[in-house]
Each structure stands twice: as structure tokens, then as C-alpha cells.
Design a protein that fits this description.
The chain contains 18 helices and eight strands. The protein has about 450 residues and is mostly helical. The strands form four sheets. It has a two-stranded antiparallel ribbon. It has a two-stranded antiparallel ribbon with strand order 2-3. A two-stranded antiparallel sheet has the order 4-8. The radius of gyration is 22 Å and the shape is globular. It starts with a helix and ends in a 19-residue tail after the last helix.
Length: about 450
């Protein structure tokens, strides 16, 4: 995965803060031991968008969830061929690029009294930890980041990680409420230092991770749903609150999905996703899916089937994979879908109906779908019932969260959208990623024997 020049700029900032007005032969000015929080924040945000929400593991998930595919014969990732070393780079992105630097940023910010920077560090740590534990299950955290004093940290149980996530978010909210006058600025590519939006994000993430535990051992759907609703009362309030990364689009500054779907990778859209939009006469079809360049038809690739002419398959539109497109990480529409699902659990399907429709409307409005077309589509999808409420909510959330990691979590915990394993599959549909070979070699732990089809702790029936 190509690292855009914004990342390079961030690293230059890291280096430049260590320079002195004189030469110290015992100190390398390009290897500083202390940097300002702003020099850490910018490159970490680039890593989170480019390598975590647009990197290798994010693309693998899209294959598992049959939104994306590669025009290659089986066996391949779409038919669930994965080896441990495939995930080495992803583990490094999570730990060596994101989490360790966020820990440094938080520690420094707390020592400096920069509570808003501490809040941002904690929120991004919670988000990164949440993604990592959802992909791998038990992961190192409490004993991690101690350098040579502990090179083999134990893996914390996923339930403990989830409690850490909520604690981090709670602490971040307290930090923001302290109302420090020192706020991030241009170093914050996400919100430009708007701490009101950061606080809304923290509450929305609390709701996301509460809802992940609706079927977890020892937890109840009703309790988790009520906790989520309480958090969402302070969550994202409009599309303007989305956590997103807008890419400049110049050489070296490409949206990661532009790179993922480049012709050399043979990446295209999968038939399941394309056919879903076609069958529903979804007005988002032309907004999300580009017709195949050689036929003008909306055609996805049947994963596990015969390969064909690359130009005969559809790609995402420029809205999602344009060189200067925006990468959507946490959205207002996701917040509404969480609210709809939680409401259906607590108060029933009728109460969830308007929220569910508003969630669809929020996504369609972002795509500039005409109001009349939105109304027509909502009518065709019909009303929620006791039998279909969760299914319809998650099916629509799957479309709105296109290319997002959350679709994997939703499928595992609800069974929707309905997927069947592809032709020539090597196993059932995977329910996790393999632990990376680099970690297996350097830090052997019993959890690392997990198979793709093994469930993480919260993924219970």
C-alpha cells in the first residue's frame, strides 16, 4: 500500500522537532526522542485511513463479504485462501504505526496538560483497538508497548479489550469537557480541531461497541441496546459530523481504494453486491457502481467462478475510488442504523421504522440521490416487521457502509446480509483473520493457532 505524501510530511515534522541550533555529535537530529503532539497526530490519522480503513485487511474483508473480488481463478482470497504472512503488514500498521504512536501522544499530552490532544489520542486508540480485536480476537495491549522490557506481551482477552475501549472513550469525553483552549489545528485531518465533533464521535463509537456485544456471552441485547441509545443521544448528528479523510488526489496522495482497485490487482466488484442493488432498483446503483467499460452493463464478478475480461466487470464509482475521493470511516448513517437496531430491540420495530428510513435517507442524500427517488425506494422496501426488522436494517447498513470494516462485524453478529460460501471455497465463510506470521515467530501465544472459521469471543449464536 502506497503511503501518501501527507504521511511523509508528518514524518518530516517528527524529525524537524528534534533539531537544535548547533550540532551535537552524540545526537542524531533526524531521530528525535521527543516531539510535539501535532507532529504525531497527522501521520497517525493518515495511517488509520490509508492502511487500516483502506489497507490489505480492509480489502480482504470486502472479499469475505462479497462486495469486492479479484478477477483470478481459485484458490484466492475470495475463496478463503489466506496464509499468516499475508497479515504481517496489517499487524505492523496497527501496532508499529498507530497504537504505539497514539500511546506516546496520549502520554505526552497528559503530561503537557493538552487535554484535547489526549482525548483525540484516546478516541483513535479505541477505534484502532476495536478494529484489531474484531479482526483477530484476543490481542496484546496491557503488556504491549514496553519496548525491550517485555518483548513477549500476553494476549488480553477480547472481553477485557472491549472494557478498555469503553474506558478510553469515557476518559476522552472527560478530557474534552475540561474545555482546554489548546486544540489541534491543521494537524488534525479529520476534524481540524473541532472538539464538539470529536466528542460526538466518541459517543457514537461507544454505541458501536455496545452493539457488537448484543450476543456476547454474559451480555444481553436489551442492555447493550439501551446503553447504545443513551450514548447516541450525544452522537453524530448529521453527515457533516462524519469521520472521513479527504485525499488531495495528486501523485502520492491517492485514496487507498483507488490503489486497491488498480488494474494490476485485478480487483473489481463482486456479483453479490452489484446484483443486490440491481435487483432492488436501488437509486444508488449508478452513484456507487460504474458500468463495465466494455459493455456498459452493471456486472459483478462471481467469486470462485471463471475469470473473464477485466473490462467486462464493474468498479466502484469515482465517489468511492476516485484518486481524490473521500474515505468514510465512521458515518452519520451508521449512527442512525445503530439507533434503529437498538430501538427495534428496546421499543419494537414500529418505533425503529422512521429511524431506519432516516438512515437510508442520510446515505442517499450524501450521494445526491433525488428526494423523489429516495421516497420511491423507501416505499418499495416497505415497513419493518417483527420478523424482518434486524434483517432490513443490517441489509441497508451493508450498502451504506460500502467498503467499511463494519460490514464484517454486522454479518458475524446478525447473519445479515445473507451470504453463502462461494463456489470452490476452501472452507466456510471466514469469521476472523489469521494471526500474522511475524507475531507467531516473535511472540508465540496459544491463540495464534486460530483458523479463519473460528469465532471471536463476541461472535456467539
Amino acid at each position: 500500500m502506497k503511503k501518501i505524501s501527507l504521511y511523509t510530511i508528518g514524518l518530516i515534522l517528527l524529525a524537524s522537532t528534534g533539531c537544535k541550533k548547533y550540532i551535537d555529535v552524540n545526537h542524531d537530529p533526524n531521530d528525535p526522542t521527543d516531539v510535539q503532539e501535532a507532529a504525531i497526530l497527522a501521520p497517525v490519522e493518515v495511517v488509520l485511513s490509508t492502511e487500516i480503513y483502506g489497507g490489505n485487511s480492509a480489502f480482504i474483508v470486502q472479499n469475505f463479504m462479497q462486495t469486492a473480488a479479484i478477477n483470478q481463478p481459485p484458490p484466492q482470497i475470495g475463496t478463503y485462501l489466506e496464509i499468516n504472512s499475508d497479515l504481517d503488514g496489517d499487524w505492523s500498521a496497527y501496532y508499529a504505526s498507530a497504537l504505539i504512536n497514539l500511546k506516546i501522544m496520549n502520554s505526552k499530552a497528559e503530561a503537557d496538560g493538552k487535554t484535547n490532544y489526549a482525548a483525540v489520542a484516546k478516541i483513535l486508540t479505541a477505534l484502532t483497538l476495536g478494529n484489531a480485536t474484531d479482526l483477530w480476537g484476543d490481542i496484546p495491549y496491557s503488556q504491549a508497548f514496553k519496548g525491550t522490557s517485555n518483548l513477549t506481551p500476553v494476549f488480553d482477552k477480547q472481553e477485557v479489550i472491549y472494557k478498555d475501549i469503553q474506558s478510553l472513550l469515557d476518559s476522552a469525553i472527560v478530557n474534552i469537557n475540561a474545555a482546554s483552549t489548546i486544540v489541534p489545528g491543521s494537524d488534525d485531518y479529520f476534524y481540524s480541531g473541532d472538539m464538539t465533533k470529536w466528542k460526538k464521535l466518541a459517543y457514537t463509537l461507544k454505541a458501536r461497541y455496545y452493539m457488537h456485544l448484543t450476543k456476547a456471552p454474559g451480555y444481553t441485547a436489551a442492555t447493550q441496546a439501551q446503553l447504545a441509545l443513551t450514548a447516541l443521544a450525544n452522537g453524530l448528528a448529521s453527515n457533516d459530523d462524519d469521520l472521513q479523510f479527504a485525499y488531495p488526489g495528486a501523485a502520492g496522495q491517492e485514496n487507498p481504494w483507488f490503489d486497491n482497485f488498480n488494474p494490476v490487482s485485478t480487483a473489481i466488484l463482486a456479483s453479490h453486491f452489484v446484483d443486490t442493488l440491481v435487483s432492488r432498483t436501488d437509486p444508488r446503483l449508478s452513484k456507487m457502481v460504474a458500468p463495465a467499460s466494455s459493455t456498459g452493463l452493471y456486472t459483478g464478478f462471481q467469486i470462485g467462478g471463471n475469470t473473464g475480461d477485466l473490462l467486462s466487470y464493474s468498479l466502484p464509482t469515482a465517489y468511492y475510488m476516485g484518486i481524490g475521493a473521500t474515505n468514510y470511516i465512521v458515518s452519520y448513517s451508521e449512527s442512525l442504523f445503530l439507533q434503529a437496531e437498538a430501538t427495534s430491540i428496546v421499543s419494537g420495530y414500529a418505533a425503529a421504522q422512521p429511524i431506519y428510513q432516516n438512515a437510508i435517507r442520510a446515505h442517499m442524500s450524501k450521494l445526491s440521490v433525488a428526494d423523489a427517488d429516495i421516497t420511491t425506494y423507501l416505499g418499495k422496501r416497505g415497513a419493518l416487521t417483527a420478523a424482518n426488522a434486524v434483517q432490513r436494517i443490517i441489509e441497508e447498513k451493508y450498502v451504506a457502509n460500502f467498503l467499511n470494516l463494519e460490514i464484517f462485524n454486522d454479518w458475524r453478529r446478525t447473519g445479515y446480509p445473507t451470504l453463502v460460501k462461494v463456489p470452490n471455497a476452501l472452507s466456510d465463510i471466514p469469521r476472523r483473520l489469521l494471526y500474522p506470521e511475524v507475531e507467531i515467530i516473535s511472540n508465540p501465544q496459544p491463540q495464534e493457532t486460530a483458523k479463519l472459521t473460528d469465532r471471536v469471543w463476541w461472535d456467539a449464536q
